[in-house]
Design a protein that fits this description.
Elements lengths: L3 E2 L6 E2 L16 H9 L10 H9 L8 H16 L6
Antiparallel strand pairs: 1-2
Bound molecules: zinc ion.
Amino acid sequence: MKQAVCFSCGEVKPGALARCPLCGKLPESDEDLLLSLALSSRNLGGVSLEVAGRDIKEGRRPRLDEQTLDRLRAQIEEFKKAPIVKR
Ligand SMILES: [Zn+2]
């Protein structure tokens, strides 16, 4: 099942916090985590993973509104409190 797009190369990967099968990158910094969560199927809303992935591959970063960013920052804080990474 397609669930997320790599923050670095735009490849579809099984989960927002999973290691990318193509470039091997794992989101570690706050900025990478924020972008990774934004690129997961849970948070993309109306935008498809394919469109988001194509944007990343073409060097465009997805635009996030403040409301979404605040929600994602809260998710990252939760993640740090209980770092359970599903692989
Ligand atoms: Zn990648």
